Fold this sequence. Notes:
Rossmann fold; 2 domains; six-stranded mixed beta sheet; 32% helix; glycerone kinase activity; Phosphoenolpyruvate-dihydroxyacetone phosphotransferase; EC 2.7.-.-; transferase
Amino acid sequence: MKKLINRVEDVLNEQLQGLAKAHPQLTLHQDPLYVTRTDAPVAGKVALLSGGGSGHEPMHCGYIGQGMLSGACPGEIFTSPTPDKMFECAMQIDGGEGVLLIIKNYTGDILNFETATELLHESGIKVTTVVVDDDVAVKDSLYTAGRRGVANTVLIEKLVGAAAERGDSLEACAELGRRLNNLGHSIGIALGACTVPAAGQPSFTLKDDEMEFGVGIHGEPGIDRRASARWTKPSMRCSIPCWKTALTAARCASGIPSRGTWQEVQQSKTRAAKPATGLSRWLITSAPLRFPNCMACITASPSAAKRPASSSNATSSAATVLRWIWRASPSLC
């Protein structure tokens, strides 16, 4: 695989230097290496910190900013950052209301973040954690004990970041993050393998007509390999437990959008996916802006589902909902 790099040993540092130069709202710290908001610490607001092995860009440093992360600790490619990075970053971003650590469920990340948490407690910093484990492909893998943390991490950083920006307490932000984790499930499919720069070759090989079903984000083996997409969708539906029944948050479509209210209703995913309103069908789409390849599905509330909606009205409502989600205004949660 061709790569635009200089020396393999300098990939991480040079990538972060370029990120900081392109985005003046970010500050790159050296020795130890981490990234923060330029205006950190923000007094009176809970600070959010995440991190993990590099190679999953724009996670996590690309999600630092107002209404999202306050700081991030990048490790080397597919390698957990060290506790000293996490400790120094947390000390830098703490605005007095505590620090919430958002951790993907990988053994190295868990161990190092736990060590950093102990150091922060000893230093008198209020700190708590949210562990993300949304991948339902396998229970245990090469890097984890339990489910892996993947796509739901970004949504948690976005939504909990909005709550922190609004001024929610550390406990409220943590509780929201854990609820979002419980509601989020994912499964991955790969058409090809990733190439770690130091290795110089793909982590596995697939035939031209094969896909890896249930692959991990580090190239961990999936459940099986298959050549047809015909049975892949049903397999995904059976693998994701929230497909049958889940708590779905929905903004009421009636009235002025800015005055709508969020409500949680328990409903059948099968029923919710019916194109009665045209809204949920339209919303299963690639997410825009800073979230390439993420999928979003927002369903209308039961009261809204009873009202017939034209295609144009559904599209307009859907666009409005997407704007609420991806802008992540403080009133989002």
